[in-house]
């Protein structure tokens, strides 16, 4: 019976994931599965607290900005070794940052170094016109355990963004040996170097062992020389790809795997009742209904947007479609992030008011093109089709005609909603990368975007101001103000924060769910 | 005691949704050792079914029932159990079929098809069997027999295939050979070859031969005794010469009158039987041939006609037979025929050629 | 032209049909990428014949010797490879398709298998009307109805047959329908390809009589194709004997029976069984050895020499004999006279193995099973 | 024979050329491009344009096709846009799984279907006949993904008899040579690996076999019934051969020809079935991968995989055609 | 036996003979289609299939009028009964016979209304496949059978294209069609239809070529009938039987295939008109808490497909020329 593995195997955990990782070098990754692996193999200078979003020490024990707020000094942990036996030190940190900063050619492609470009903007030598000036300026190794990172300006992203696994520190020797930056092939024939596919070398509690594409499994093993607080309890950690949600559940039940991520909301309660170890991550996401003011001129009218907001019975949706613990959103970020404003304008379900507002706006005969995605589940929207059905029922109840337009998530939906102007309504969401409000509202509203179709220079200026405020307390106040402004302007309707669940076998303990999906398998163990 | 004595053989097909067909309806005939007996009749009169019934080869299906008796040298072929029948078939009684191409297994070499009988009934195997098979092929006139053993049926011409089939049939020197229209699918020149071969085989081995055919010409050249079948019954039996010289049953007469003869002149009118074989009266209701018969009298309908045995070793099944040539009745015949016909009333008024729609397809 | 060319063709000559050196070769093609022609099946290989008006020409020969192909080529149903077909003064081989189509009214065909030559989904009326419509005969439905009814009468079918379908008739009746279809257009020439060989003996006689009667009544000209010499002999004025795509002998029926000149004709005659024990017992059989050679690869010289009991070491294997006039007959044999006089005696011939041509299925012909199954 | 093979292979070249043109146009006409899939929610129009430019997708389609063809001629299929691995590598890693699955399904279908069809024909009108005909009818009508779920629920979740996902237990250390796990296990004498791989094949194999099995049962039954009525079977019976000989030598072999045709044609369908079966059983194969590649507009993978599949399809049918000539001497391949 | 009795018996038999040879003038002939229909009527499989399909069509036509609840009415959610996100979907009750679906809609009503859409998908997609396939196959068949050298070229060209279609796994073809057209009901119907094109095309072509070589085509030619007319009025009608059988069987497949496309997320996403395949696919996330949501539509699909298959098989038997006299 393969359901119960024998005592000797109790130090091997097979964890079901929804997709294959794309690449093992997190500098090149943006997909969750690649990053999940990276989090076990690599470490970053700073990292989120376990189970939360606050910045805590990682490879750096402390970090301090200078008075301008543009140069940060990191004090590094000593005695840390990479998996290949080489030492971790300030020099290694600079090698890594310079590798990213000095990237050329295909390394500047937005799909190759997505997070670097997201956070830092550009490179030492930008090869594309649309790239902004780099935020990162230089790295100086003062001594073995002290490193200075200089930036071109003050930014809310520093140092929070350095928690991202994409800023993991690699072994300089391995980078060199396996030609980590040599992205080969011709323009339409990109090939990753062997480092990125076979030899990721970090300092984390697990070492990479093998990636068996033919069996869709990726095996990590314990780093016996781990220098951190605690060595991994598991000897072997295996990620096994099972793309179908039901198949993951059945695999867990039949004992093929001892845990999996992306649990369907409907399965949360039943699995919990069966005794599985169900962990719920704090909701660190937002699902919102976007209104495109370019799509239909009527939508530029604030009254119409308010009417839409009043028309939606978000509480019913949260109650019926989202997992336990989900909340109706009052603004475009969760309340766990500093800058959340308890006093923003709210728009509670009110059909009459919605109808009245529509009448006032002269939009009684409104027909809206409502785009919604198919073939996708996201942590913030487990079942988009169901959500669409409920939202459109609500809208129809106040007399807005809805023309539903289903599109495949990739490429159609993302294309349609983020570039064109054919859409009036659509819904989308965001999961925070790190614990700063700008990562939520800034990404959405700090400039003109086709997704929303509005231009509000005053709002954009306020965002700029917040981003470049070095003092965090002052920045948080600005965030609150921004949230209030946004909710008054009502570019879209925030709908919900939904807590994604992750499940483990009945006898697996030690993992703490993280809002940033930064679960640390090093602490996982089988209870006897 | 004859080699084979068939008595009152009947075969009935009952099928759901279809009318019950009595394909063979009380056939009796006998075959002596070394004799060639012909079964002649038009399509559908039950010739093949008779032979298959004797061989025990009718499909084993519910709804097919066989009655009567077929005494072959003391064993009743119709009653013997299946395993014993398998021993008899191919060894004591063998059969040749009409279509040589479809009767040979297309995916097995000729040699194998010959040797498998030899090993089944004569215990030969390996080289001995192959040698014997080659000898058999040689005997039936297939040139270069050792090479042919490896060939497949489709690589042989029609005549050669039929020879191969004959070789298989005579492999165990059966005492009785049943040939069901062995030459119908062949050209005349090939037919002549095959008939000659059959005659030689019968002459040399003393095998009795039941020759099934619809060609009276073939019968005239081969058979010792002839049985004419109509609608599942023997309507006339006689030795060959008397039958052709003096047919008594109107059906036999009609058949002979229908055949264009090579030695007749251009434009000699044929005298065909009107109607078609489908216009039959069930035997239970009288003479099956009555609807097509020009000598029909009232007595034809009602009771099935009895077999009449004349002193000239001839039997026929007719209440109003054609009088023998030169008999006093022959002179008076036209009158005799006309009178009862008039009485028959409605029956003769109908032109049988106007009989519609096939009967077999009607549901019960 | 050979010396067999006796009748001088005239504008409206006594011959309705004149066939000159007709050849039909079917290409055999195979190849690696593109099919190349690697040979020909010489189904008809140089035939001359003429059919006088109102007479019947009978064509006999073994299966596969090209009788049907000749008949079809004559009617231009199979395009001839070369040669001429002259029908009532009109050269058919060069006739444009449109003219040819209207010409078809005057020449009709009767087929061997009465079932397969009738469209099973047409009732008798529409079978018969089709030709009338194609040629615009009959002004309206009633006019056509009248023509059809008359034809039905002529072939001895009842009027109620009109609404029936072919499968509801017996074999003989079906053949009558086929004849009616040919007759309804009022043709001059009828090519009957094995008109009775699929029928029962008793029915066969009915149909033979019918054909005879129709000829007398309507003055039709027949080309009757059959492999049964007795049938052909019964209805034909002139008989042509074919062997491997060519005529080997042609003569008036009686003469052919009395005095067959070609060795093949003799063998054929002697092989036909006669339903008379007296005749059968007296007859001397000339048994031919082996089977008909493949028309794709016919023997050199005289096509018959491989099976001929009179074959001579000289000429036969090298020189192809042409039809020569001997008395009323035309015969293609180098040694016809010495054989007739008994000067040459037959000898024994050993059979040669003959390969049937292309009977196997090719894999391309394996049809897709029409099975359901969505696999999903 | 060799001529036939050469001819068929040569015929493949123009067909592949035509297929590649059609496919190229077809794929590039699909709305959207790979860039959206790569960037996900985070993409901006500029980033997309940059990627399109990098991938050469902003060039005229003829230029793109020319580049593809030049690579094709060197037998280089390029590399996947999504995984950045070479297309051939991807194929060699994923195709063996599909083959193992399809072969398992075929083996199950043949091993069960032919005897069952034969028995049904012999017992025509009896209970066994009705049961197998009804079973095969239902087999065709049941959606595979539903059947798969039911099979897993019973045999994996409740009875714990078989694993419910994957090709092999990842805790087994197995050497990979050909990526055919069973074969690899046997070659390296890692018996437990081979056994485990077979174990993993059972449920997906059964699910995928349901339709071929149903079809084979019915074709075999029909074909045996037809052969039983053939003249040569009667001849064989007339020879007095034993029932076993008649059955094996004369009936079955002749009945196999249509079955072989069907099996050849089933291969295409098995690939389709594999798309779903692989998804439901988390089985690593090309089916699900191609489906993903379509939504990700991974042009090189789609072009490469479909061309390879087309070649294989032709090869399989070539083998089937050749096998006819083994079963049936009348069939001359030329 | 008395004499009178014997006489009476004899009279009866005489009548019978008269009957046998009587001219049944008034009767019309029975065409092959009618013949086949008669055979069909006697086949139990056909009867079962027809009854199943009859019910199905009846439900599809009148069902939506009688359903107790609107198929898109999310009552369960309004009333707070359904919390599918938390694993709560109530089963059958007196008011809701089959309970709610995951969106709080009445499952029974959706099942009934879904019949219409399912029928539509099956019929339309089969018709699409049939129309295109028959057009391609018909042209190719006519060209190959009657068209001479040019015809053979045309035939070869068309068939190469069809072969290519056949070489692509059908589901992938459907997936890529859906990718081109976007997910919608039309897409599903087109995709499923296109997939069956090669089958219809090859079937009709093969059958037409076979028919072109028959004697009655030759007979029509010798009557002087135009080739185009021969193709249309002889060859085509006689080639249709296998195509019709296939169409019936394809109806079954189409319904299942549409369900598979829905499962892959390509199906009709518009739930205003429920369809069984979509319902089955939509039920997947809730298999753990209420498998009935999948079982109802699955069983409905299986039964319907079975009905079509039974009828198709029976028709195959009824139309089989081998069984004709
Ligand atoms: N399996 C069967 N089921 C039902 N009826 C059958 C079956 N086999 C034969 N018959 C019927 O039995 C009758 C006699 O058939 P049989 O084959 O013996 O005729 P035949 O004299 O051999 O004719 P032919 O010259 O055509 O071979 C026919 O009417 C036929 O319809
Ligand atoms: N369309 C064709 N293509 C190739 N070969 C053909 C074609 N039609 C006939 N043949 C060949 O031509 C030869 C003569 O055929 P044909 O049908 O004319 O003979 P036949 O004398 O009518 O024979 P049968 O008596 O069997 O009807 C045969 O070898 C046949 O295989
Ligand atoms: Mg018979
Ligand atoms: Mg012919």
Automatic annotation (TrEMBL), chain B:
Subcellular localization(s) per the UniProt record: Cell membrane
Occurrences of domain ABC transporter (ranges): 4-256
UniProt lists compositionally biased (Low complexity) regions at: 328-344
**Any one Gene Ontology molecular-function term assigned to this protein's record:** ATP binding
Recorded hits in SMART domains, A to Z, give: AAA
Q: Which UniProt keywords apply?
A: ATP-binding, Cell membrane, Membrane, Nucleotide-binding, Transport
Q: Which CDD domains does the record match to this protein?
A: ABC_NikE_OppD_transporters (cd03257)
UniProt keyword Disulfide bond, yes or no = no
List membrane-spanning regions. none
Q: Which InterPro entries does the record associate with it?
A: AAA+_ATPase (IPR003593), ABC_Ni/Peptide_Import (IPR050388), ABC_transporter-like_ATP-bd (IPR003439), ABC_transporter-like_CS (IPR017871), Oligopep_ABC_C (IPR013563), P-loop_NTPase (IPR027417)
Q: What PROSITE patterns does the entry give?
A: ABC_TRANSPORTER_1 (PS00211), ABC_TRANSPORTER_2 (PS50893)
Q: Decide whether keyword Cell membrane is in the record.
A: yes
* Superkingdom to which the source organism belongs: Bacteria
List the biased-composition ranges (Basic and acidic residues): 348-364
Q: How does it sit in the membrane?
A: Peripheral membrane protein
**Disordered: annotated segments:** 324-364
Sequence similarity: Belongs to the ABC transporter superfamily.
The record's PANTHER family line, in alphabetical order, gives: DIPEPTIDE TRANSPORT ATP-BINDING PROTEIN DPPD, OLIGOPEPTIDE TRANSPORT ATP-BINDING PROTEIN APPD
Descriptive protein name: ABC transporter ATP-binding protein
Q: Please tell me the species this chain comes from.
A: Plantactinospora solaniradicis
Taxonomy of origin reads: Bacteria, Bacillati, Actinomycetota, Actinomycetes, Micromonosporales
TrEMBL record, chain C:
Return the CDD domains for the record: ABC_NikE_OppD_transporters
Keywords of this protein's UniProt record, alphabetized? ATP-binding, Nucleotide-binding, Transport
**Matches recorded under InterPro entries:** AAA+_ATPase, ABC_transp_ATP-bind, ABC_transporter-like_ATP-bd, ABC_transporter-like_CS, Oligopep_ABC_C, P-loop_NTPase
Q: What SMART domains does this protein map onto?
A: AAA
Pfam families reported in the protein's UniProt record? ABC_tran, oligo_HPY
Tell me which residues make up the ABC transporter domain.
19-269
Which residues constitute the signal peptide according to the record? none
The UniProt GO MF terms for this protein read: ATP binding
Q: Where is this region: Disordered?
A: 355-376
Query: Cross-referenced NCBIfam families, in alphabetical order?
Result: oligo_HPY
Instruction: Identify its protein family.
Output: Belongs to the ABC transporter superfamily.
* UniProt name for this protein: ABC transporter ATP-binding protein
Q: Name the source organism.
A: Plantactinospora solaniradicis
UniProtKB/TrEMBL annotation, chain D:
Identify the domain of life: Bacteria
Q: What membrane topology was assigned to this protein in its record?
A: Multi-pass membrane protein
Q: Does the keyword Cell cycle apply?
A: no
Domain ABC transmembrane type-1 as annotated: residue spans: 95-324
Q: Which InterPro entries match?
A: BPD_transp_1_N, MetI-like, MetI-like_sf
Keywords, A to Z?
Cell membrane, Membrane, Transmembrane, Transmembrane helix, Transport
Please indicate if the UniProt record lists tRNA processing as a keyword: no
Q: Where in the cell is it found?
A: Cell membrane
Q: Which residues cross the membrane?
A: 9-27, 101-121, 133-155, 197-217, 257-290, 302-327
Chief localization class? membrane
| PANTHER family in the cross-refs | DIPEPTIDE TRANSPORT SYSTEM PERMEASE PROTEIN DPPB-RELATED
Homology family: Belongs to the binding-protein-dependent transport system permease family.
* Name used for this protein in its record: ABC transporter permease
Task: Name the species this protein comes from.
Answer: Plantactinospora solaniradicis
Q: What taxonomic lineage is listed for the species of origin?
A: Bacteria, Bacillati, Actinomycetota, Actinomycetes, Micromonosporales
Automatic annotation (TrEMBL), chain E:
Q: Which domain of life is it from?
A: Bacteria
Q: Which locations, inside or outside the cell, does it occupy?
A: Cell membrane
Q: Which InterPro entries match?
A: BP-dependent_transpt_permease, MetI-like, MetI-like_sf, OppC_N
Per the record, membrane topology reads: Multi-pass membrane protein
Checking Pfam families in the record gives:
BPD_transp_1 (PF00528), OppC_N (PF12911)
Which family is it part of?
A: Belongs to the binding-protein-dependent transport system permease family.
Q: What is this protein's record name?
A: ABC transporter permease
Q: Which organism is it from?
A: Plantactinospora solaniradicis
């Amino acid at each position: 019976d393969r359901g119960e593995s024998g005592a000797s195997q109790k130090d091997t955990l097979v964890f079901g994931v929804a997709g294959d990782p794309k690449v093992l070098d997190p500098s090149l990754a943006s997909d969750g599965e690649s990053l999940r692996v990276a989090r076990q193999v690599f470490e970053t200078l700073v990292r989120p607290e376990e189970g939360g979003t606050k910045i805590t020490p990682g490879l750096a024990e402390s970090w301090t900005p200078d008075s301008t707020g543009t140069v940060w000094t990191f004090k590094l942990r000593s005695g840390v070794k990479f998996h290949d036996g080489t030492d971790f030190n300030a020099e290694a940190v600079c090698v890594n940052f310079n590798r990213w900063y000095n990237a050329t050619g295909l390394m500047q492609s937005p799909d190759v170094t997505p997070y670097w470009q997201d956070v830092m903007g550009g490179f030492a030598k930008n090869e594309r016109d649309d790239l902004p000036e780099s935020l990162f300026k230089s790295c100086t190794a003062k001594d073995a355990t002290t490193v200075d990172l200089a930036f071109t300006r003050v930014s809310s992203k520093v140092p929070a963004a350095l928690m991202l696994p994409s800023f993991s520190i690699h072994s300089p020797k391995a980078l060199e040996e396996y030609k980590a930056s040599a992205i080969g092939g011709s323009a339409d024939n990109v090939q990753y170097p062997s480092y990125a596919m076979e030899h990721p070398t970090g300092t984390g509690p697990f070492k990479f062992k093998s990636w068996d594409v033919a069996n869709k499994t990726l095996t990590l093993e314990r780093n016996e020389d781990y220098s951190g607080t605690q060595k991994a309890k598991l000897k072997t950690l295996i990620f096994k790809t099972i793309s179908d949600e039901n198949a993951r559940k059945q695999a867990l039940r039949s004992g093929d795997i001892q845990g999996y991520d992306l649990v369907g909301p409907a399965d949360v309660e039943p699995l919990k009742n069966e005794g599985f170890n169900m962990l719920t991550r704090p909701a660190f996401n937002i699902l919102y209904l976007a209104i495109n003011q370019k799509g239909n001129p009527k939508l530029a009218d604030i009254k119409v947007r308010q009417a839409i907001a009043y028309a939606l019975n978000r509480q019913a949706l949260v109650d019926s479609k989202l997992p336990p613990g989900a909340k109706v959103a009052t603004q475009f970020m969760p309340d766990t992030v500093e800058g959340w404003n308890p006093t923003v304008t709210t728009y509670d379900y009110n059909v009459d008011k919605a109808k009245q507002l529509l009448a006032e706006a002269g939009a009684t005969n409104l027909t809206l093109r409502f785009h919604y995605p198919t073939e996708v589940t996201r942590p913030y929207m487990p079942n988009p089709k169901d959500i669409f059905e409920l939202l459109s029922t609500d809208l129809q109840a106040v007399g807005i005609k809805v023309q539903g337009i289903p599109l495949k998530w990739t490429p159609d939906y993302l294309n349609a909603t983020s570039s064109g102007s054919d859409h009036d309504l659509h819904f989308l969401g965001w999961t925070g990368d790190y614990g700063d409000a700008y990562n939520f509202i800034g990404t959405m509203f700090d400039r003109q975007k086709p997704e929303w179709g509005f231009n509000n220079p005053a709002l954009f200026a306020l965002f700029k101001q917040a981003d470049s405020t070095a003092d965090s307390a002052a920045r948080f106040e600005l965030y609150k103000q921004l949230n209030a402004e946004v909710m008054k302007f009502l570019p879209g309707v925030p709908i919900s924060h939904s807590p994604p669940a992750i499940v483990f076998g009945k006898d697996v303990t030690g993992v703490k769910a993280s809002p940033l999906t930064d679960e640390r398998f090093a602490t996982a163990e089988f209870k006897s | 005691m004859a080699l084979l004595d068939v008595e009152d053989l009947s075969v009935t097909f009952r099928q759901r949704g279809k009318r019950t067909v009595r394909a063979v309806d009380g056939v009796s005939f006998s075959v002596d050792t070394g004799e060639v007996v012909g079964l002649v009749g038009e399509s559908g009169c039950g010739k093949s079914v008779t032979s298959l019934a004797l061989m025990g080869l009718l499909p084993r299906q519910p709804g097919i029932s066989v009655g009567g008796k077929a005494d072959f040298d003391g064993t009743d072929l119709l009653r013997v159990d299946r395993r014993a029948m398998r021993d008899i078939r191919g060894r004591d009684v063998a059969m040749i079929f009409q279509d040589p191409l479809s009767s040979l297994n297309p995916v097995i070499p000729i040699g194998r098809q010959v040797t498998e009988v030899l090993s089944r009934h004569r215990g030969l195997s390996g080289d001995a069997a192959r040698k014997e098979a080659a000898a058999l092929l040689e005997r039936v006139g297939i040139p270069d027999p050792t090479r042919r053993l490896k060939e497949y049926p489709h690589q042989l011409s029609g005549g050669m295939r039929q020879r191969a089939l004959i070789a298989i049939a005579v492999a165990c020197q059966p005492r009785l050979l049943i040939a069901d229209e062995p030459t119908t699918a062949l050209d005349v020149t090939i037919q002549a070859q095959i008939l000659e071969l059959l005659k030689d085989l019968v002459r040399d081995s003393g095998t009795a031969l039941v020759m099934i055919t619809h060609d009276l010409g073939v019968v005239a050249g081969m058979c010792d005794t002839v049985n004419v079948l109509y609608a599942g019954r023997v309507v006339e039996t006689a030795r060959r010469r008397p039958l052709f010289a003096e047919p008594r049953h109107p059906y036999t007469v009609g058949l002979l009158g229908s055949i264009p003869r090579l030695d007749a002149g251009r434009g000699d009118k044929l005298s065909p039987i009107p109607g078609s074989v489908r216009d039959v009266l069930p035997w239970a209701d009288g003479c099956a041939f009555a609807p097509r018969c020009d000598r029909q009298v009232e007595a034809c309908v009602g009771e099935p006609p009895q077999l009449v045995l004349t002193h000239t070793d001839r039997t026929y099944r007719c209440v109003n037979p054609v009088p023998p040539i030169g008999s006093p009745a022959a002179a008076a015949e036209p009158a005799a025929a006309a009178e009862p016909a008039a009485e028959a009333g409605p029956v003769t008024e109908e032109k049988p050629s106007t009989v519609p729609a096939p009967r077999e397809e009607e549901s019960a | 032209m050979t010396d067999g060319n006796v009748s001088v063709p005239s504008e409206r000559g006594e011959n309705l049909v004149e066939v000159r050196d007709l050849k039909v070769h079917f290409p055999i093609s195979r190849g690696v990428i593109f099919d190349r022609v690697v040979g020909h099946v010489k189904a008809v290989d140089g035939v001359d014949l003429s059919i006088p008006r109102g007479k019947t020409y009978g064509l006999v020969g073994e299966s596969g010797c090209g009788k049907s192909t000749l008949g079809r080529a004559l009617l231009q149903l199979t395009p001839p490879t070369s040669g001429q077909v002259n029908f009532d003064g009109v050269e058919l081989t060069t006739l444009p398709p449109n003219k040819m189509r209207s010409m078809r009214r005057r020449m009709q065909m009767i087929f061997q298998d009465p079932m397969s030559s009738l469209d099973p989904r047409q009732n008798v009326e529409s079978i018969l009307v089709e030709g009338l419509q194609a040629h615009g005969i009959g002004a309206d439905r009633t006019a056509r109805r009248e023509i059809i009814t008359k034809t039905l009468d002529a072939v001895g079918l009842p009027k109620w047959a009109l609404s029936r379908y072919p499968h509801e008739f017996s074999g003989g009746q079906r053949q009558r329908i086929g004849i009616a279809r040919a007759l309804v257009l009022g043709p001059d020439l009828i090519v009957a390809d094995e008109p009775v060989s699929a029928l029962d003996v008793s029915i066969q006689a009915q149909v033979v009589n019918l054909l005879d009667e129709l000829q007398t009544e309507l003055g039709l000209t027949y080309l009757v194709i059959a492999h049964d010499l007795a049938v052909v002999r019964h209805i034909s004025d002139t008989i042509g004997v074919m062997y491997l795509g060519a005529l080997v002998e042609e003569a008036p029926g009686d003469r052919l029976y009395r005095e067959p000149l070609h060795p093949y004709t003799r063998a054929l005659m002697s092989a036909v069984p006669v339903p008379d024990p007296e005749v059968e017992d007296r007859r001397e059989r000339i048994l031919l050895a082996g089977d008909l050679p493949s028309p794709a690869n016919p023997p050199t010289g005289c096509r018959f020499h491989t099976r001929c009991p009179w074959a001579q070491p000289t000429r036969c294997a090298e020189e192809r004999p042409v039809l020569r006039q001997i008395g009323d007959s035309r015969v293609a044999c180098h040694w016809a006279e010495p054989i007739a006089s008994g000067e040459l005696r037959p000898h024994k011939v050993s059979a040669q193995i003959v390969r049937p041509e292309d009977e196997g299925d090719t894999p391309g012909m394996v049809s897709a099973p029409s099975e359901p199954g969505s696999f999903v | 024979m060799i001529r036939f093979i050469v001819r068929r292979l040569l015929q493949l070249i123009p067909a592949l050329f035509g297929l590649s043109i059609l496919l190229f146009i077809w794929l590039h006409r699909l709305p959207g491009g790979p860039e959206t899939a790569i960037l996900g929610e985070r993409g901006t129009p500029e980033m997309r344009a940059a990627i399109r430019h990098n991938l050469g997708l902003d060039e005229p389609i003829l230029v793109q096709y020319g580049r593809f063809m030049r690579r094709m001629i060197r037998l280089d299929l390029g590399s996947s846009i999504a995984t950045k691995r070479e297309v051939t590598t991807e194929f060699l890693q994923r195709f063996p799984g599909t083959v193992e699955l399809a072969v398992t399904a075929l083996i199950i279908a043949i091993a069960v279907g032919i005897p069952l069809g034969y028995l049904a024909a012999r017992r025509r009108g009896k209970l066994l006949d009705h049961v197998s005909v009804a079973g095969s009818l239902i087999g065709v009508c049941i959606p595979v993904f539903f059947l798969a779920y039911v099979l897993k629920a019973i045999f994996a979740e409740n009875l714990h008899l078989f694993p419910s996902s994957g090709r092999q237990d990842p805790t087994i250390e197995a050497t990979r040579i050909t990526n055919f796990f069973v074969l690899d296990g046997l070659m390296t004498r890692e018996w437990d690996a081979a056994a485990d791989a077979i174990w993993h094949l059972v449920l997906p194999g059964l699910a995928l076999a349901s339709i071929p099995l149903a079809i084979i049962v019915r074709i075999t039954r029909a074909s045996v019934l037809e052969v039983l009525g053939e003249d040569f079977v009667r001849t064989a019976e007339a020879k007095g051969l034993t029932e076993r000989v008649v059955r094996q030598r004369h009936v079955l072999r002749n009945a196999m020809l249509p079955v072989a045709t069907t099996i050849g044609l089933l291969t295409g369908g098995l690939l389709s079935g594999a798309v779903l079966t692989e998804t439901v059983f988390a089985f690593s194969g090309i089916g699900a991968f191609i489906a993903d590649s379509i939504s990700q507009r991974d042009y090189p993978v789609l072009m490469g995989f479909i061309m390879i599949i087309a070649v294989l399809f032709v090869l399989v049918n070539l083998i089937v055609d050749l096998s006819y000539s083994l079963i049936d001497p009348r069939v001359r391949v030329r | 036996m008395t004499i009178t009795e014997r006489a009476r018996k004899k009279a009866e038999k005489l009548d019978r003979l008269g009957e046998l040879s009587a001219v049944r003038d008034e009767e019309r002939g029975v065409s092959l289609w009618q013949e086949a229909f008669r055979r069909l009527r006697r086949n139990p499989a056909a009867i079962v299939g027809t009854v199943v399909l009859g019910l199905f069509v009846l439900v599809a036509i009148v069902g939506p009028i009688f359903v107790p609840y609107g198929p898109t009415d999310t009552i369960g959610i309004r009333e707070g009964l359904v919390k599918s996100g938390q694993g709560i979907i109530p089963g059958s009750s007196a008011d809701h016979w089959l309970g709610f679906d995951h969106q709080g809609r009445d499952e029974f009503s959706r099942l009934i209304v879904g019949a219409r859409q399912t029928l539509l998908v099956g019929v339309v997609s089969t018709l699409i496949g049939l129309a295109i396939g028959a057009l391609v196959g018909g042209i190719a068949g006519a060209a190959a059978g009657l068209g001479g050298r040019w015809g053979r070229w045309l035939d070869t060209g068309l068939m190469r294209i069809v072969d290519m279609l056949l070489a692509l796994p059908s589901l992938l073809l459907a997936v890529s069609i859906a990718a081109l057209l976007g997910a919608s009901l039309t897409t599903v119907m087109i995709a499923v239809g296109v997939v069956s094109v090669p089958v219809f095309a090859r079937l009709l072509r093969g059958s037409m070529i076979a028919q072109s070589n028959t004697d009655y085509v030759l007979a029509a030619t010798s009557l002087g009938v135009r080739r185009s007319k021969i193709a249309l009025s002889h060859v085509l009608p006689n080639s249709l039987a296998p195509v019709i059988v296939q169409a019936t069987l394809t109806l079954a497949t189409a319904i299942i295939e549409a369900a598979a496309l829905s499962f892959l997320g390509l199906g009709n996403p518009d739930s205003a008109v429920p369809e069984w395949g979509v319902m089955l696919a939509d039920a997947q996330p809730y298999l753990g808490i209420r498998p009935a949501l999948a079982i109802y539509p699955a069983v409905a699909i299986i039964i319907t497909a079975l009905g079509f298959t039974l009828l198709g098989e029976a028709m195959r038997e009824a139309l089989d020329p081998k069984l004709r006299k």
